[in-house]
Amino acid sequence: MKPFKIFFCLSFAFLLTCAGLLMPGGTLLADEYTVGPDDVLKITVYDHPDMETRVRVDGNGTILMPLIGHVNVAGRSIAQVSDKLASLLGDGYLVNPQVNVFIEGYGSKKAVILGMVNKPGLYELSGQTTLLELISKAGGLASDSGATATIKRLKSGGKSEIITVDMRALMESGDMSQNVAINHKDNVYVAKAGMCFVTGEVKKPDAYKIDEDTTVIKAVTLAAGFTGKAAKSKIRIIRIIKGTKNILKDVELDTPVRPDDVIVVPESFF
């Protein structure tokens, strides 16, 4: 296995472990779960056992509560539902009610993940689910996954929002602010990485994933380094620019590499 792939796999495993340890429910620095249709809620009111109830959120996002009737709870966090119920019960019914809400059953919420994952498709969200957890459900990232993921999310009124995730910051730097919560009906797309091909006098000629920081020497390092016969001062890059093949000769080792470049390390005859 190539060194960068080993690092990538270890990073992913480490982050998933962190996601299971640092916060309840296997999530890490994600927004609170929002209530939706078919969720089952257990609602209790302190010092009022007769008010305890279990309700299922209907297709319109509402529940039926004693005293106050139908209440719309869809799209709210558990804390927001508790506050709303307390406010309604305190408006002429109870004095300073303390309401607790628990989720006893999750409704059928799903999200789509496509692109550079091993098992793209439609997945059910079992409660609060983060991007890393959805990627895990999809069999992990593919070896040619890129530096970004995009999440298309429907907002109220039918409008959509695009969220861009920096996968490098998440996977390599452990920036958990990028580990966003996945909502019902989200569409996630993991981009494909730029690739270059390293050939000639390197130990492991092959195609390698690159990013905007990749230079010729970094690409050669991914290919396990030069052989003893490499002409290091005669390296060429074959680059397609607007459909035309261009050959860059005698490039420096710190020359930036672009996606689809072919790096040719010739043999030294001296």
Q: How is the main sheet built?
A: 5 strands, mixed
Number of helices: 5
Main β-sheet, spatial strand arrangement: 7-6-12-9-10
Q: Can you count the beta strands?
A: 17
Share of β-strand residues: 25-35%
Helix content: 10-25%
Mean pLDDT: 85
Task: Please identify the structural class as seen in this structure.
Answer: alpha+beta
General shape: rod-shaped
* SSE pattern, N- to C-terminal: HEEEEHEEEEHEEHEEEEHEEE
Task: Please give a quick description of this structure.
The protein is α+β, with helices and mostly antiparallel strands and 270 residues long.
Keywords:
270 residues, five-stranded mixed β-sheet, alpha+beta, single chain, disordered N terminus, rod-shaped
Task: Kindly describe this structure.
With 270 residues, this protein is α+β, with helices and mostly antiparallel strands. The protein contains five helices and 17 strands. The strands form five sheets. It has a five-stranded mixed beta sheet. Strands 14-13-17-15-16 form a five-stranded mixed beta sheet, covered by helices on one side. It has a three-stranded antiparallel beta sheet with strand order 2-1-5, covered by helices on one side. The two termini are 33 Å apart. The relative contact order is 0.13.
